[in-house]
Amino acid sequence: MKLEHIKFVEDYRTDILERLTADDFLPASNKNEMVQDAFQDRPTPWSRLKANRLALIGMGIVIFMILAAIFGPMMTPFSYAAQNLMEANQAPSSAHWFGTDTLGRDLFVRVLYGARISLAIGFVAALINLVIGVTYGGIAGFFGGAIDRIMMSIVDVLYGIPLLLYVILLMVVLGPGLTSIFIALGIAYWLTMARIVRSQIIKLKAEDYVIAAKAMGFSSVRILFKHILPNCVGPIVITMTLAIPEAIFTEAFLSFIGLGVNAPMASWGVLASEGIASMRSFPFQLAFPALAICITMLGFTFLGDGIRNALDPKEEGK
Amino acid sequence: MGIYFLKRIAGAIVVMWVIITITFMLMHSIPGGPFTAEKKLPPLVQQKIEETYHLNDPLFKQYTDYMSNIVKLDLGPSFKYIGRNVNDIISESFPISAQLGFTALLVAFVGGVTAGILSAMRPNSWIDYTVTFLSTLGISVPTFIIGAILVYYLGFQLHWFPVALWKGPMYMILPVLTLAANPMAFIARLTRAGLLEVMNQDYIKTARAKGLSTKYVFLKHALGNAILPVITYLGPLAAALLTGSFIVETIFAIPGLGQYFVTSIYNRDYTVILGITIFYSGLVVLFNLIVDFIYPLIDPRLVVEKEDK
Q: What is the ipTM, given to two decimal places?
């Protein structure tokens, strides 16, 4: 048995030696085309996202809502603020597609306008906590040591605070309005982003290519911006896509307890809470804003899950 | 172990101190003070009021006074309801909120974990799709819309349940369902994901190879590890139930603390807002602390890791 085995290996060796030619000793780039092709053809995040039907639906919904928010209000003859008490509480008709509210305002244009406000809140709040979170987490992670310890224990303490309560307090202090909402949401919800960016940077700092860059004498700033931050984009994008619906959700909640935007402006949250007040007699006044919120939320959830799976395949199915 | 617990407690105290300080500073940065919003009072009356509520003391003294009162568990008087203080309001209305919140917590936990197990047992079956569909809806639909839909169909249309007030078990069903819907959906997702991940591990394959039944493997071997994320979620869940209760109590006209909080926001009753915020924050911190304490009983690895850092 054993002898046979050795013989087999020896045969194999001579076989290979006979088959080797001078070409085989050329640099690797001339060979291994298959390996390289397989590496280049590995699914990109984009193709993984495209293969996910739910994510595509989500993306479609989000894009549709953004377009509707931008161009929608231009295409109807009604204004979101014009009251017409003669036409109050009308059911949906060909003139008023979504009916009218208790002050006779056209609900269709108000829902479209609400899309502008709600989406703007989502994107701006996410942007603010992107800027604060990435800067904060970036500084902590990059400098490390005592700076990191102090900055992160501050984050740990803030993490223990029920943030929504403080958003409410901030809104009470700042007074209702769009700017207050931006500020309150922006300064409350950057903690997750800071934590994620920090841990990502600490992980990347130990990577060989960063050490190589350091050995080559590049400045810290250049290493941070050229080598480390580009590789943090995945987790940052994932956190952003989850932060947008969170902000829209929170704004709807704030509007419900009377801390939303000022009248006659109306976000979806304001419209829905006005709709709840007259739900018994005119359920359609709740139905349309509620549908708008739910569909958009679903869109963001699908898209967010899809982006996460595409950028981080390990997380698939979570 | 001892160090771990001490650290947690010290952390909780620091968090509470930060919370009280931030709330105090925020409330005192409101321009004009609590009594200037209404029509102008005669200067003497104004002065008298400010004396009664110690509003003309220097800010730092007000702060230390407030702190020492809080240590004595006294949250101060209400500015709007003369003669009542925040402690009265809390002790009167919090039991109702606690009842609502605790029932919702149980429903969310039991319902969510059960749904998660059912869907993970047969991935891609119709049960799995139903649970996934419902839980996606549950996390994407705001609480007040769920509440409104339940009220409209089960209350107004079918007349199955009363839609307001708090007078007995029948009155509890709709509010509890509304409050539990969102966390239940989240727990179902967490449980399902946790189970699916654990089921790929070697010790589960071993258990199966030994010939144990699917049910036994699920409940005895997989669930313990799979449920860890759910336990971690219990802290944020407490906060979610609190804020959910603002909405639910307002929709269903339940005389609990949440409704009081919303009313005091409308009224701009600053001491009540301040007091209830601190009370709520204290609850959440306490809840997080409890979770920190039960966690090592379930997963000893965590404590070791944390002490290593």
A: 0.78
